[in-house]
Design brief:
It is a single chain. By secondary structure, the protein is mainly α. The chain is built from 15 helices and six strands. Among the domains are: 47 residues; 91 residues; 124 residues, Intergrase catalytic core (hpI Integrase, Chain A, Orthogonal Bundle). Strand 1 and strand 2 form a beta hairpin. The longest helix has 21 residues. It starts with a strand and ends in a 17-residue tail after the last helix.
């Protein structure tokens, strides 16, 4: 049956049966030819659905998808506000590129990404210098995570390969013991005490500045040799706190400072100490001692991890002490030497002999047992 008109109606209607179901709707059109086209389109749509064909939803542009990406990061990284802030700031740079922001996600390919890298590499920073490879790479890493989420949610069919810029210089400076002596000797007050704490506990500077006096236990617990500080996870109920043992010199510093107020590190008037202020002091001392520019405050934490690895500490223990999210990060501090591997087997052999002796087993292979011949 074709289109028809209802009594006293100016619009054309259509009516037909599909799989035994009566379909009847108004086209809301007064032109018969247009009404017939609408009826045909409805039948075509039903046919596509019948054989499992679905109209593909339009792929959102980067700008349209950005809010959903931000919400996902805020959910996944709820206990890491710094990470949320990181992705939000890098996303702003991506969206500031109008060409990239207006593109549907499935049209962001290797050529588009290479063009973005070229543009950003020529962009000047606030200091009127070209952006460093590290800065551009952080933006590319944000774009890569965004596209991977879009692929995971079946919005795009593939994730383009994103090659990071070369020339990024990793800050992996490790303080030697001579440099430590000179550095601590040239510092005083808050910077000296924070630096010493970071060197011997591996705390991040932000963690050190948030440390409360109630988080410090100077006397060892029963059966322990060291006191400890509790680094509390203050950002989420799902994140974990950790206890870090302290050395004698850290205990001495904490004892002197614990009478100042609620925070271990605070000004005499009770106001908090800001990291930017300590960073400025650090740069002054570093330049005075002619230490390399790679020596940043975070190097103190990196030095702690490196020294743990050199002392033979396993990656899992390093992860627990330093509060790493995965053991992968901790493994870079562990470099087993032939001597350490020999020592590990020696300890295993001693443990085996002691345990076997406890259960009265002299040898795991009876002397009268014939040896297995392997051909």
């Amino acid at each position: 049956m074709g289109v028809y008109k209802q009594p006293k109606s100016k619009n054309w209607w259509y009516k037909f049966k599909w799989n035994g179901e009566l379909i009847r709707e108004s086209t809301k059109q007064t032109n018969k030819r247009v009404a017939e086209q609408i009826e045909a389109a409805h039948k075509t749509a039903l046919a596509k659905g019948e054989v499992g064909i679905r109209e593909k939803k339009p792929v959102p542009t980067l700008k349209e998808f950005a809010p959903r990406f931000k919400r996902a990061i805020e959910t996944v990284c709820a206990e890491k506000p710094a990470t949320i802030s990181f992705y939000a700031s890098k996303l702003k740079f991506l969206l500031a590129n109008e060409t990239l922001a207006r593109l549907p996600l499935d049209r962001i390919d290797e050529d588009v990404i290479d063009a973005y890298k070229e543009t950003r590499s020529k962009t000047k920073s606030r200091r009127k210098r070209p952006l460093s490879p590290a800065s551009v790479n952080r933006e590319l890493a944000t774009l890569r995570r965004l596209l991977r989420l879009a692929h995971e949610w079946k919005i795009i069919d593939r994730v383009p390969r994103i090659r990071l810029l070369r020339g990024e210089h990793a800050r992996e400076f490790v303080l030697s013991y001579t440099q430590e002596k000179n550095y601590l000797g040239a510092t005083s007050g808050d910077l000296h005490d924070v630096a010493l704490l970071m060197l011997d506990t591996g705390l991040r500077m932000g963690e050190a500045l948030k440390l409360e006096c109630s988080d410090a236990r100077l006397e060892p617990a029963e059966g322990a040799k060291h006191g400890y500080v509790t680094v509390r996870a203050r950002n989420s109920k799902n994140s974990r706190s950790r206890n870090v043992p302290i050395t004698a010199r850290v205990a001495k510093v904490l004892k002197q400072r614990m009478s100042l107020g609620r925070l271990v590190f605070q000004r005499r008037d009770g106001t908090p100490i800001y990291q930017t202020w300590l960073n400025e002091q650090h740069r002054t001392v570093r330049d005075l001692l002619k230490l390399p520019a790679e020596f940043v405050p975070h190097s103190l934490r990196h030095t702690f991890g490196t020294r743990l690895g050199e002392a033979g500490t396993d990656a899992f223990t390093i992860m627990k002490l330093m509060g790493h999210s995965t053991i992968t990060v901790s493994q870079r501090y562990v470099h087993p030497s032939p001597e350490s591997m020999e020592l590990a087997v020696t300890r295993l052999e001693a443990l085996n002999e002691r345990k076997l002796d406890e259960v009265g087993i002299v040898s795991v292979i009876p002397t009268d047992m014939p040896m297995l011949q392997i051909h």
